[in-house]
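Chapter summary example.
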Amino acid sequence: MAARRPLLPLLLAAAAVLLALAHNGEIRERAEAALGQGMQPREAALARGFVLGQDEGVDALTREDFRRSGLAHLLAVSGQNVALLALLAMPLLAALGMPLRTRLLWVLGLIAIYVPLAGAGPSILRAGIMGGLSVLAMLAGRRASRFYALAVAAVVLLAVEPGFAADVGWQLSFAAVLGILLLATRLREAFVATFGAGGARRTLAEGAALTIAATLATAPLIAFHFEAFSTTTLFANLLALPAVAPAMWLGMLAAGAGQVPGVPVEALNAVNSLLLAYIAQVAAWCGRPQWAYLDVHLSLVGMLAAYATIAAAALLAIRFRPGGRALSRIAVKNSTAYGALAATLLVVFAFVASGGAGGSSGSGPPRGLRVTVLDVGQGDAILLQPRGAPAVLIDAGPPGAGLLTGLRAAGVERLGALILTHDQSDHAGGAHELFGVIPVGRLLYGVLGRANLAEAAAAGTPGRRLAAGSVLSSGRLRLDVLWPPRDLLAGPHAGEDPNVLALVLRARWRGFTMLLTADAEAEATPLDPGPIDVLKIAHHGSDDAGLATLLDRTRPRLAVISVGAGNSFGHPTPGTLATLAAGGVPVLRTDRDGEVRLEVTTGSITVDSQG
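The structure predicted for these 611 residues follows.
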C-alpha cells in the first residue's frame, strides 16, 4: 500500500498544472472536440453537457425533456454530478485492494483533475467543492464532523464571494449536499438490508440513496425559484441512474484522451452514445406527459415549511436503524451540529430571499425578471436579471461609457454570462472594463476580435461561439439565438458588414418575450420570432426597410431604442420613428428617457425610465 501513496502527490501536482492550463481554454477546447468525434449531434451535445456543463448545443426539444423530467441538472456541472462521477470510482479502487481512506484521497484527486478539465469556472469550482463534500458525507467520517465541514465550507465560500448566495446553482448544490448528509446513509443502509450488499447492488444502492436524498432536498428550492415541479423527477433520476455515472466516466475518458493528439476516442464515444441515447429516452418518457410538469407558487414561508418537514422526518429517521433499534445517544450527540447547520441553511435562504449580495440595490431584488437598457450613449448594453439566477449582460457599450458604474448601481457584482453580439466598438468596446474586475461566468459571441478573447482568457472567463439554434438559460430566463446561421459565421469575414453577423436573441421569461436585435436590421435578417412584448430596435434606430414587416409579424407592445444624445448619425431616423408611430407602437429611447427598466412579473410589465 505504501507504494501506491506516493502517486497521490503526483496526481494533485498534475491537477494544479491542468488548472493553470485550463484558464487559457486549451484543455476545454480539446475536450470539446474529443467529445464530438464519432457521435450523432444530439449525443455529442449531451456528452458536452454532462462532462463540461456546456449545454448550449442541446436541441430545444431534448432540453425541454430534461427540464420537465427533472434531469436538467445532468446538463450542468453540479455537486450532485461530481458525487455521481466519484461513486463509480470507489468499487474500481476497492478492487485494487485500497483501504477506504486511500480510496477517498484518490477520489478527491480525481475531482481535482475534473475541475480544470471542465473549465475551472466559478460554478465548476463550487461543484467540485460540494461534490467532494458529498463523497466525504457518503463514505467517511463522523456525522457531526461532516455537518460542521459543510457549514464551514458555506461560510468560507460566502466570505470569498458573497454573490454566490444569490446563485441558484450554488443553492441547489448546497441543498443537495445537505440532503445527502441527512438522508443518504440511512437510505443506503435500508437498500443494502433489503437487496443485499453485492458489488453491483451496493453501487446501485449508493447511487439510488444519493439521488433520492438530493432530489428530496432540492425539490422545495426548485419550486420556490422556478415556480414549477416535476412529478416524475424521482422516477426519472432512478431510471437514468445506471447509465449516468458510466456516461460521465466515458465522457471524462474521451475528454482526457483528447488532450493527446492522435489518440482515438471513437470507441469510447460509440459506447457512450448508447448510454446518452438511453438517458435522453428516459427524459422523453418522463417529461412529455402533460401531467409531468406542474406550475406551482411556493412562497418563502412555504419553502421553509417544506424544508422543516423534511428535516423533521430526517431527524426522526436518524434515531433508528433500519431494524428499528434506537440510536438516541448518537442523535443527542449530533443534535448541536444539526441545529447549527439548520440555522445556517435558514440564514442563507433568508439572505437569498431578501436579495442577497449581488441583488439590486435601492429598488430591491427583481420580483421576476428585470430588464435594464443601460444608458451608455451611442451603443448597446442590456442587462437581464432573472429572480434567483445569475444576471446576463448583452453587449457592453462603447469604451468609457460608465458600464461598470451602471452595473453596480443595478446591484450586479457578478455576471453569469456576457454576450457580445458583434465585434464593433459601440457594442463590445466596454467589455475590457469588466474582465478581471467583476466575475464573468462565460463570454458568448458570434464573431469577436482577438483582443476581447485574450482579455477574457486572461481573466479566466471561458468563451464560446453562438449561432442560430443555440439556447442559453439562467433560472427561468431562456435566450434563443435566432440569427445568424452557423454556416454564415464559418467563412472569412473580411470586408463583410459586421451588422449582418450580429447575434439576434429572443429572451423569454414565462409569458414575456423580448426580441433583442443588436444591429441586425430586419431587411437583412429574415426572422419570424412570433408575437413579442418588447422590441429592441436594431442599429440604434437607423433606417430599416424591413421594420414595418417585422412589426406586423411580432406585434410588440413597446419598442426601446438604445441611442446616444446628439449623435452624428441622425439616429433614430425620422423614417424609423414614423414606421413605429404608424404601427401604434410606443417608444422609449435612452437619449431622451435615460435608462429604461422593465419589471416583469407573472401577468404584468412595469416600465420605468429616468426621463
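To summarize the output: Residues 1-24, 322-333, 353-362 have pLDDT under 50 and may be disordered.
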